[in-house]
Write a structure and sequence with these properties.
Protein name: Ubiquinone biosynthesis protein
Keywords: Ubiquinone
Low-confidence stretches: 1-5
Distance between the termini: 67 Å
Strand content: 5-15%
Largest sheet: 5 strands, antiparallel
Pfam families: ABC1 (PF03109)
Organism: Kitasatospora paracochleata
Order of helices and strands: HHHHHEEEEHHHEEHEEEEHHEHHEHH
Mean pLDDT: 83
Shape: globular
Structural class: alpha+beta
Number of strands: 12
InterPro entries: ABC1_dom (IPR004147), ADCK_kinase (IPR052402), Kinase-like_dom_sf (IPR011009), Prot_kinase_dom (IPR000719)
Number of helices: 15
Radius of gyration: 23 Å
Oligomer: single chain
């Protein structure tokens, strides 16, 4: 009976998804103006927003894959946001009861029902624990995990249909969905987030001027993450800091991210302004460890090697690393043409004044080359690049003169040694 009910629920969800897709994409196909792909790109954000959290998160991550998707589509998907209204108090209370039992057994003296943050997967509330500590309590939305899992299954079944759409026939849709969908589901796993937070804290324990909230394992449950409440947090805006204070803060951010990427191999890929803050002491505060990716050692070294050779203008070695780390190299791949094109790109970037280097301008050009030559990156290689792209704009707005590449070189030389730099 349960299996039948589950199948029936999956069928209803599939019908709902089909109805929403037909309404948005069908309208785009029959409308006029622009290319078919442009019209589909324009319709995608509203469609994914209506379909819910799983598709919103997938769309956000797909917006970073400019090595595979058009700039137009990535720009449109980049407008998606998962800031949504909080669930009713009764729904939050039901989750807390599921986690701890009756209200008299909850570990809170006080609990603020009005959340300080509300996303598509969870809400975050300020609370006072029974031992007197003030905590941030992340409460997963009721029913979100089975919904996202069923959406993952249905999306997988539909991924193959991209072969029927002109311009998307060569897209490795199944592989992309497997990589990105798994990353999305992990963000709903609060036990995994607690483990990631503990590992990041251990890795960065000796990093001065950097703070992460301490998770309280004894109070956390599968659907609830309880952690230290960090208050008096400030956005990364230039005022009221001096130029020297801004430069010091940005160096701490960059050195922390580079340490994750090139030394520890555990990378926070979601350091947007809501998750990366400053406190009253000027310390860098990292929040929300839901999207943390472990890098296999091979990928970590590949990415570090690419970044170091890019900094030194060694385009041939950069091209070789892209090929070595690719998820797929097509038959008949024009290796010489690709290497020459990457050499030219890296050579042009090497001429840019250090403080004016812009990864957000460099990466799309590299991705276009990958699309042209039919080579696409493994997700493990794309996610570290995502972490840098997310923070670059914020860093340049806070401290326009920061040497984005130069700050990485000492760390890379210590970690990888001079052998990777082919002079």
């Amino acid at each position: 009976m349960g299996a039948e009910a589950g199948s029936a629920g999956l069928g209803r969800r599939a019908a709902r998804i089909g109805s929403v897709a037909v309404r948005h994409l069908g309208g785009a196909l029959v409308s006029r103006g622009g290319t078919v792909l442009d019209r589909l790109a324009g319709a995608a954000p509203a469609m994914l927003d209506e379909l819910g959290p799983f598709y919103i998160k997938v769309g956000q991550l797909l917006s970073t894959r400019r090595d595979l998707l058009s700039d137009r589509l990535c720009d449109r998907l980049g407008t998606l946001t998962d800031t949504v209204p909080a669930p009713p108090r009764e729904a939050v209370a039901a989750t807390l009861t599921e986690a701890y039992g009756p209200a008299e057994r909850w570990p809170f003296r006080e609990f603020d029902w009005e959340p300080v943050g509300s996303g598509s997967i969870a809400t975050v509330h300020r609370a006072e624990l029974s031992d007197g500590r003030v905590a941030a309590v992340k409460v997963r939305r009721p029913g979100i995990v089975p919904l996202m899992r069923s959406d993952f299954r249905l999306a997988g079944a539909m991924a193959g249909t991209t072969r029927l759409v002109p311009g998307l026939r060569k897209l490795p849709a199944e592989e992309m969905l497997g990589q990105i969908g798994t990353a999305v589901l992990t963000q709903a796993d609060l036990a995994a987030e607690r483990a990631s937070l503990e590992r990041l804290r251990a890795n960065l324990a000796d990093a001065s001027g950097v703070r992460l909230p301490e998770p309280y394992a004894e109070y956390s449950r599968e659907q609830v993450l309880v952690m230290e409440y960090l208050d008096d947090l400030r956005d990364f805006t230039p005022e009221p800091y001096t130029a020297e204070e801004r430069r010091d803060a940005m160096r701490r951010v960059l050195h922390t991210v580079y340490r994750m990427l090139f030394v520890d191999g555990l990378v926070h890929c979601d350091l947007h302004p809501g998750n990366l803050r400053l406190n009253a002491k000027g310390e860098v505060v990292i929040l929300d460890a839901g999207f943390v990716v472990p890098l296999p050692d091979r990928v970590r070294r590949h990415f570090g090697g690419f970044f170091m050779n890019m900094a030194f203008g060694q385009g041939r070695r950069c091209a070789e690393i892209v090929i070595e780390s690719a998820a797929k190299v097509p038959e008949g791949f024009d290796r010489a043409g690709f290497v020459a094109a990457v050499e030219e790109l890296v050579g042009e970037s090497a001429k840019v004044v250090a403080g004016e280097f812009n990864l957000a301008a460099f990466a799309p050009r590299l991705f276009k080359l990958q699309r042209r030559y039919g080579i696409y990156a493994a997700a493990e290689f794309a996610f570290p690049l995502l972490s840098l792209l997310v923070i670059e704009g914020m860093i340049h707005s806070f401290d326009p003169g920061v040497d984005f590449q130069g700050e990485a070189v000492p760390i890379l030389m210590r970690t990888m040694g001079p052998s990777e730099h082919a002079s």
